[in-house]
Amino acid sequence: MVSWNKIARRIRVPLGFALAVLYVWLAQPTWLSLGLGFCIVAWGVAIRGYASGYVQKNEQLATSGPYAYTRNPLYLGSIVLALGFALAARNWWIGGVMVVLFLAIYLPVIRGEEAYLRGRFAEFDEYVRQVPRLLPRWTPGAVGGKGEAARGSFRWALYQQHREYNASLGAAALLAVLGLRLLLRLRW
Question: 91 in helix, strand or coil?
Fold first, then answer.
């Protein structure tokens, strides 16, 4: 039997695209909400981009950079993005759907990934003790040890390998659609 974790992992991206259509239809942006939303979305994109430059999937446990503050900076960035888009849209239904999606999709995915990492990396339990799951610490956790994992640094090659630029392009496109809607005063 397939677990909800696996289903959630598979449907999260396609579901996001489907919900983008609903988002544009329900959005009621103003220039102010769009500007404020843009600022928050840009912050979310930056968090995701920065985090992606540290991830070496299945090879090494990321514990440096943003991973020294939160175990899930990519998901934190996604939450910040969602908050920005909810603000830009000015629609409570959209905010509610985003909360439900986080609880139903992302929490199970995070738990599933943690189970995988626990089985793959012996140092994961120590990392869990020192670094919070989602809301970041004010100071970096003292996790690491010897080698690249301890010092780590952002690598553009990893950012490009993970194609994190797609988040920037998608965010820009969605904000542009909202801006165009405002310019043309479209009411759907």
Answer: coil
